[in-house]
Write a structure and sequence with these properties.
CATH topology of the largest domain in chain C: MetI-like fold
Strand order of the largest sheet of chain C: 1-2
Shape of chain C: globular
InterPro entries (chain B): AAA+_ATPase (IPR003593), ABC_transp_ATP-bind (IPR050319), ABC_transporter-like_ATP-bd (IPR003439), ABC_transporter-like_CS (IPR017871), Oligopep_ABC_C (IPR013563), P-loop_NTPase (IPR027417)
Structural class of chain C: mainly alpha
Radius of gyration of chain A: 24 Å
CATH superfamily of the largest domain in chain C: MetI-like
Largest interface: A-C, 39 and 46 residues
CATH architecture of the largest domain in chain C: Orthogonal Bundle
Strand order of the largest sheet of chain A: 1-2
Number of strands of chain C: 4
Largest sheet of chain C: 2 strands, antiparallel
Largest sheet of chain A: 2 strands, antiparallel
Structural class of chain A: mainly alpha
Distance between the termini of chain C: 17 Å
Protein name (chain B): ABC transporter ATP-binding protein
GO molecular function (chain B): ATP binding; ATP hydrolysis activity
Number of helices of chain A: 11
Pfam families (chain B): ABC_tran (PF00005), oligo_HPY (PF08352)
Number of strands of chain A: 2
Order of helices and strands of chain C: HHHHEEEEHHHHHHHHHH
Keywords (chain B): ATP-binding, Nucleotide-binding, Transport
Radius of gyration of chain C: 24 Å
Oligomer: heterotrimer
């Protein structure tokens, strides 16, 4: 949906930034004309109070920012986290101590507060979505790194890794053949849960007016504008709020599903439940 | 009426029939052992005696009467009165069988109060009393300790104390000594014996170890696939078994008094450790796991290294193959000092589960040393792996299978094939058979013997089981607290031990003959009294 | 000294070290990297003369480590600062001077503390009750419909941002039902009843979000403990199921719940930005957003430091409390 934003908006025939003064009631302070926030054939989901910008178009363009920032920040976090975690797990005592303490400090940072403060001192000219990706990404890799390091240390102590060493395999061969495949599952699980949390963070920052700045639409930024209208035009509040809710919930459910599917214990529980159910029927 | 009457008991978990038409009786004050290998259903029977399968989804058929309670037809209330009150159970792993958050005395008191109307104070006093009875020194103070503050043997004593709290008629012991060292095992078995004499309670012992059974009971019942194979007096069943499976089982049990046959030891030293030491931790907390050990290993011979947990034998094994660097001292291979791993010195690991990568086919794992050596010809790799698989008694077609498709014994064979792939001259086997059933154990030991003869291998056999070590070794080193306390030809060490610790170890080994067992018990008692 | 005391001391010293590193990072980020920190600190409305004065106050002419040492000295011993109109003493912990507000940052933040504390403590009581109760229920009804419904609810609660929950609650209780006033903070000392009444919505929003975590934690540790061997032991000794759950299974859930509570409480001090902004609670979090908007750098930096302090302290306290509840970790 996010990729197809221009297409979808074109389909409706509305521009996300075009003002429609005719669609709002200026006498009432700019409340949209018509029921449910001005929903009609022209404006599928109504218009923004005050300006009359088309909500459907803004929401689909907003999706690009919201989802794009969420996913890109996740990529940054995972790449950094896996890199640092592997280096700490495989490196010597000094490197491990250095990287682990750094990770501890990263995890101890109040990341939301830090993100807000950082966004405040960066010059206004810097593109906000990119900045958001960097800030979220650079602040949020600690968890992945800690998981990867712990998993690497566990795997390293397993007999089959010792056996591979005895067989003459080098450091890289062991990392590639014996460690990485077993790391994939926990990393995938954790990643799947990072995505919704990043989407939520972007929404939160933009909601506070610190993330994406108008006129660029993002769901959090729209919600922020909407709360000032929430008595007069509740539909405007419900749309972005509902979208954030549904998206984050959907990604979390997906992440939870990934965890269940990849956790051998959980998987055997599911199989056991299915077996018991089958037996109960028989 | 007998203390226990089991008639035609069946227990099914889904489509699996764990116990299949089992019947037996146990009279008051008598002792019976259920003996069998893993999967024989022996522990399932023990649980059925207390009705522990109620509400778990297992289907139980037949009838079970314990101390006058019809377990099958009993109400929840009657079952609760039976459990711990009339019949008490001692589990295998004493650490996980106690609640880590409460003091041991409080846990015993809690159980006591479930079955009596005793006050808290009286229950605490009773807890101290039973802890004293099982031989815990300074019981009043120790009753306030939590389980992790006890040693393994002490914890098992505490569990037995809990069982004794309500003076039950029957004690059910499910592998009570399996997690313990052999000297501690002997103490616990002696304790059970003494308690039976003192209290007159009946004992149902569940064990995989024929020796443990011979030490402790009057009657044995050999189980296999959920059925009775043979049932009778210990001396009769173990002395002149009538069933083929019993004979096979007994034949597979290694004997501590039977020396190795068919040795091809030479005088040519291949691997040598001189004054090796290994510390873990740094500074003040550094602990030497291995301390000033010197050993030689000669072509064609087997050196047994035997010791209890914490003796440093595994650390020593890992230094011999180069997985761990010694803190001091050196490892020499064919006279040359050697650090790091060496293809000519390979290892077979204890745990057949964790020693194979679950995500790679066994063929790929075995091919690793070939590829590491630079072999690129896939056809040649495949042929060599197939040959190795067949050599260890598997099929070449198993190349593409994954570890979970194999049994424990088969996985251990894969581990041996992988070690052979590097064309080694020495193989260090770290507890290679301790995770296996006794019949499988015998097969793997036999395979190692054949390979040694065929390839002229030197073997280092690290194990806690004195009998297995005797069975395979030409020479033996006994380790304790990181040091070798005695070393020499296996026959000399076993038949005329010099070091007091070696003597103690050998005295603790369970005997298969009940009369010998009784004599040894008496000897241990005298030793303890002196 | 006991093992435990040594463990606690080591943990707290570790926290101190992290705080020191944190202060260096913060100082570098906000006072060294920007081109003209004096202008940033003074705010957009300052004249050039005022900026020069701030520059002198910050010691920007000196080498970086001297500046930092001065900054540290203020934190631990207090210092004298020029306010633009004169000089006043700024007692430890001195976080600097807000030129826009004409007040010391420390006292500005101290005024904000009661509102944040009101929000955090009240919400915590609520989320603990809600979380543990639903977790317990869900574990006891394991495999049933109740568990599945609760699992879905906690998943939703865990995922959805607090401001969404807050807005929806506000729409429902204020606009549609009209049961609650539009929240506006009333200090506890002024009117306890109004204080509580106005905080119901923020408490509830935070509690719904946070309780999901506690519900999952309670459920999973209960189920884990119930599957353990020692529970089997007590069943085999005729102990009632009620005592097994009450005495043995719940006991295993206590250490992680206590640790997580300490952690979350620490995070609430400063990081409840969204809740405080949404409901207009004049706490630390709201103050952060306000000072970012007005570009009041000294307050922003002070807030980041204070928030970091609470989070790091909470981390250490959580570890120590965990060890109190489960002595085995001291040995590990």
């Amino acid at each position: 949906m996010a990729l197809a934003a221009p297409l979808l908006a074109a389909l409706e025939g509305q521009d996300p930034d075009a003002y429609h003064a005719d669609a709002v009631d200026s006498a009432l302070g700019g409340v949209p004309l018509g029921s449910f926030g001005g929903i009609g054939a022209d404006h599928w989901l109504g218009v923004e109070p005050g300006t009359g910008r088309d909500l459907f178009a803004r929401l689909v363009y907003g999706a690009r920012i919201s989802l794009g920032v969420g996913l890109a920040a996740t990529v940054v976090q995972v790449v950094l986290g896996v890199g640092v975690g592997l280096a700490a797990g495989l490196g010597n005592r000094f490197l491990d101590n250095l990287l682990s303490r750094t990770t501890d400090v990263m995890l101890a940072l109040p990341s939301l507060v830090f993100a807000i403060a950082l966004l405040a001192i960066v010059p206004a000219g810097f593109p906000r979505p990119v900045l958001l990706v960097l800030v979220l990404g650079l602040l949020g890799w600690g968890g992945t790194s800690r998981i990867v390091r712990a998993q690497t240390l566990t795997l390293k102590s397993l007999d089959y890794v010792a056996a591979a060493r005895l067989g003459g395999a080098g450091r890289w061969r062991i990392a590639r053949r014996e460690l990485l495949p077993s790391l994939a599952a926990p990393v995938a699980t954790y990643t799947a849960l990072l995505v919704p949390s990043n989407i939520a963070s972007e929404a939160g920052l933009s909601f506070l007016g610190i993330g994406v700045k108008p006129p660029t639409p993002s769901w959090g930024q729209m919600l922020s504008t909407a709360t000032t209208w929430y008595e007069a035009d509740p539909a405007y509040v419900l749309l972005p709020a509902g979208l954030i809710f549904v998206t984050v919930f959907a990604f979390t459910t997906l992440g939870d599903g990934v965890r269940t599917a990849l956790d051998p214990r959980a998987a055997s529980r599911v199989r056991g439940r299915a077996r018991r159910r089958k037996e109960a029927r028989a | 009426m007998s203390l226990v009457e089991v008639t035609d008991l069946t227990v099914e978990f889904g489509s699996l029939r764990a116990v299949d038409g089992l019947s037996f009786r146990l009279e008051r004050g008598a002792a019976l052992a259920l003996v069998g290998e893993s999967g024989s259903g022996k522990s399932t029977v023990a649980s059925a005696l207390l009705g522990l399968h109620h509400g778990t989804g297992a289907r139980v058929g037949g009838s079970v009467h314990v101390a006058g309670t019809d377990v099958q037809g009993a109400s929840d209330e009657e079952l609760r009165r039976l459990r711990g009150g009339k019949a008490a159970m001692v589990f295998q792993d004493p650490l996980s069988s106690l609640d880590p958050y409460y003091a041991i005395g409080d846990q015993i008191a809690e159980v006591y109060r479930v079955h009596t109307r005793a006050s808290r104070r009286a229950a605490r006093a009773r807890a101290v009393e039973v802890l004293e009875q099982v031989g815990i020194p300074d019981a009043r103070r120790r009753a306030r300790s939590r389980p992790h503050e006890f040693s393994g043997g002490m914890r098992q004593r505490a569990l037995i104390a809990m069982a004794l709290a309500c003076e039950p008629d029957l004690l059910i012991a499910d592998e009570p000594t399996t997690a313990l060292d052999v000297t501690v095992q002997a103490q616990i078995l002696d304790l059970l014996h003494t308690l039976r004499e003192e209290t007159g309670m009946g004992l149902l012992l569940v064990t995989h170890d024929v020796g443990v059974a011979a030490e402790s009971v009057d009657e044995v019942l050999v189980m296999r696939h959920g059925r009775v194979v043979e049932h009778g007096r210990v001396s009769a069943v173990l002395g002149s078994p009538s069933h083929a499976y019993t004979r096979e089982l007994l034949g597979a049990v290694p004997r501590v008094d039977v020396p190795r046959t068919g040795s091809q030891a030479t005088d040519e030293v291949v691997l040598e450790a001189t004054g090796v030491r290994r510390e873990f931790g740094r500074g003040k907390r550094a602990l030497a796991a291995v301390d000033d050990v010197s050993l030689t290993i000669r072509r064609g011979e087997t050196l047994g290294i035997v010791g209890e947990s914490g003796s440093g034998k595994t650390t020593l094994g890992r230094m011999l193959v180069g997985l761990l660097e010694p803190t001091a001292g050196a490892i020499r291979y064919e006279g040359q000092a050697h650090t790091g791993v060496n293809p000519a010195v390979q290892m077979v690991f204890q745990d057949p589960v964790s020693s194979l990568n679950p995500r790679r086919s066994v063929g790929e794992s075995i091919a690793d040393p070939l590829r590491a050596r630079g072999e690129r010809d896939e056809g040649r790799i495949r042929r060599r792996v197939t040959e190795l698989l067949e050599r260890v008694g598997l099929e070449g077609a198993h190349y593409g299978r994954y570890p979970h498709e194999f049994s424990g014994g088969q996985r251990q064979r894969v581990g041996i094939a992988r070690a052979l792939a590097a064309d080694p001259h020495v193989i260090v086997c770290d507890e290679p058979v301790s995770a296996l059933d006794v019949t499988t154990q015998a097969q793997v030991v036999a395979l190692l013997g054949e390979l040694q003869k065929e390839l002229g291998l030197a073997l280092v056999f690290v194990a806690h089981d004195l009998a297995v070590v005797r069975q395979v070794s030409d020479r033996v080193a006994v380790m304790r607290k990181g040091r070798v306390v005695e070393e020499g030809p296996a026959d000399e060490v076993y038949d005329s031990p010099q070091d007091p610790y070696t003597k103690q170890l050998l005295a603790a080994v369970p005997a298969l003959d009940p009369e010998v067992a009784a004599r040894r018990r008496a000897a241990r008692r005298e030793l303890a009294a002196a | 000294m006991t093992l435990f005391a040594r463990f606690a001391l080591r943990r707290l010293l570790g926290a101190l070290l992290v705080l020191l590193v944190l202060s260096i990072v913060i100082y570098a980020l906000f006072y060294v990297l920007p081109g003209d920190p004096a202008r940033l600190a003074c705010g957009p409305k300052c004249t050039t003369a005022q900026v020069d004065q701030v520059r002198a106050q910050l010691g920007l002419g000196h080498p970086v480590y001297v500046q930092y040492a001065h900054f540290l000295q203020g934190l631990f011993a207090g210092t004298d600062i020029s306010t633009g109109v004169g000089t006043e003493h700024c007692g430890a912990p001195c976080l600097g001077f807000s030129y826009q507000n004409g007040e010391q940052v420390t006292s500005l933040l101290a005024q904000r503390l009661p509102a944040t504390a009101s929000l955090a403590l009240g919400a915590m009581v609520l989320w603990l009750i809600l979380g543990i109760a639903t977790g317990l229920l869900s574990a006891l009804r394991h495999g049933g419909l109740t568990e599945r419904v609760l699992t879905a609810l906690t998943l939703a609660g865990n995922a959805v941002p607090v401001f969404i929950i807050g807005i929806l609650l506000m729409l429902l209780f204020v606009s549609v039902l009209g049961w609650l006033p539009f929240p506006s903070y009333v200090p506890l000392t002024d009117d306890p009843e109004q204080w509580a009444w106005n905080l119901v919505l923020p408490w509830l929003s935070l509690a719904i979000l946070e309780s999901a975590k506690y519900s999952r934690l309670t459920r999973s540790s209960l189920l884990e403990t119930l599957a353990e061997d020692h529970v089997r032991t007590f069943r085999a000794y005729g102990v009632r199921e009620r005592s097994i759950i009450g005495r043995h299974a719940l006991r295993g859930a206590v250490p992680p719940i206590i640790a997580l509570s300490a952690l979350d409480l620490g995070t609430m001090f400063g990081s409840a930005v969204l809740t405080e902004s949404l409901f207009g609670i004049p706490g630390l979090g709201k103050s952060l957003v306000d000072s970012v908007r007005t570009e009041d750098l000294p307050v922003v930096v002070g807030l980041v430091l204070v928030t970091g302090f609470f989070v790091v302290l909470a981390n250490a306290v959580a570890d120590v409390l965990y060890a109190v509840a489960d002595r085995r970790v001291v040995l590990a």
